[in-house]
Amino acid sequence: MKIGLQAWGSEGDIAPFLALATGLVEKGHIVTLVVTDNVGRDYTQHAREAGFELVSVPMPLPADGSDLDDIWRRIIQIGNPLKQVELVLRYGYDPVAEKMLTAATDLVVSSDIVVGHFFAYPLQIAAELAGKPAVTLAIVHNCVPTRTHQAPGLPDWGTWSYALGWRLAGAIVNRVFLPRYNGQRQRAGLPPVNDTMSEAWTSKRLNLLAVSPSICQRPSDWPSQHVVTGFINAVKPTLELPLPVPLKTFVHDGEPPIFIGFGSMMLASAIEYAKETVQIWLDAVRQLGKRAVIQLPEALLHLVPNDRHFLAFAWADYRQLFPCCSVIVHHGGAGTTQSALRAGRPAIIVAHVSDQFFWGEELERLGVAGPTLQRKGLNSSKLSSAITKTLANPDQAHRAKALGESISKENGVAVAIEAIEDCYQSARYE
């Protein structure tokens, strides 16, 4: 079977598609993955070693000449999630949407079935035009309405309020996303739709939720096309590498260090924001007299003094690093959240935008993290206090370990592949 995949976003958005593409090739399928990475990461080596075709649709620089450091600071300081998403889309999605549709059109022509990131609505449009079956893949489980719990970010006033809450959430989402989706549908000659969550973000055939069932217990009122697969990550990592020698030496030379990293929130081009953020990290760790490993882009490594208290690095396999750390301080992105959970380590979430706040709430609900911190207004005292409380909470560490053991037994790739194969077979006989 020829299967086309399309992903957009950060490393955490794209990693499940790399794992899925690898697993599909191992099952004998012919796979093409179209990628738009928000900072231009190169996945060529992974594709070559795994045996699938990679097509890159790069993100252009801001057309209005805006400084990336200024854009990022504006996004963080706004505080209003709706306005944050609007800015992220304006600078990180809109400029590449038409190129994504062109790539999606080519992908659909050469594929029997396609699977797209739930934000990659150009693929849904291209598949609809070509009459090809399309599957959506979501890396977060807060986009499918249910009568069993409240919509994210809204107060829980009991079951009577859930339907109202989801309608309100839908209206808010539609305000930002629906004009974009319908605009592109109209330009493609398709009629408009009425709802983003049910008609743009989720396929009517199959919607894969790449989340552990230990976290997302499937609501009984969800239609059958919604499948909770478990986290989708490489079972046999193509690019699994040992920890760099300096990093391996550091983590084993003394008590387990604190991990600190904000992933794709740390743009190498946003230098002033990065300097300010790193200084908060350093001051917090120094106040505690602890050791820390700090992840930054290569161009920012010089901001951290490499001494007996700190070691900065650009990349490491989280599956090997996180189990060696005492606590994982991160931004709450889906990919890093998943890695910390699998490692069985408690976390401190410093949310910046969007679904990071949701993940913070989820980890607190599960008892594996304390209250979510916000990047806006963060200082070293707040961070050091959160670290102190986490390190002094053995119950939290125990729950994190137990949850990690449960998640490690899951095989999201296998569940997703079986669902995709079944979906294709069903579509053939329609």
Output mean pLDDT.
93
What is the β-strand count?
13
Number of domains: 2
Structural class: alpha/beta
Rg is 21 Å
Strand order, biggest sheet? 3-2-1-4-5-6-7
Remind me, CATH topology of the largest domain? Answer: Rossmann fold
Low confidence ranges: none
Provide the CATH superfamily of the largest domain: Glycogen Phosphorylase B
The CATH class of the largest domain is Alpha Beta
> How large is the count of helical segments?
16
Tell me the span between the first and last alpha carbons.
18 Å
SSE string? EHEHEHHHEHEHHEEHEHEEHEHEHEHHH
CATH architecture of the largest domain: 3-Layer(aba) Sandwich
Strand content: 5-15%
Helix coverage percent? 40-55%
Main sheet specs: 7 strands, parallel
Organism: Aquitalea palustris
Protein name: Glycosyltransferase
Keywords: Transferase
GO molecular function, one term: hexosyltransferase activity
Description:
The chain is of the alpha/beta class. The chain folds into two domains: 2-235 and 411-428, Rossmann fold, CATH 3.40.50; 245-408, Glycogen Phosphorylase B (Rossmann fold). It is 46% helix and 14% strand. The chain has 16 helices and 13 strands. The strands form two sheets. Strands 3-2-1-4-5-6-7 form a seven-stranded parallel sheet, with helices on both faces. A six-stranded parallel sheet has the order 10-9-8-11-12-13, with helices on both faces. The longest helix is centred in the middle third of the chain and has 26 residues, at 162-187. The protein is globular, with a radius of gyration of 21 Å. The two termini are 18 Å apart.
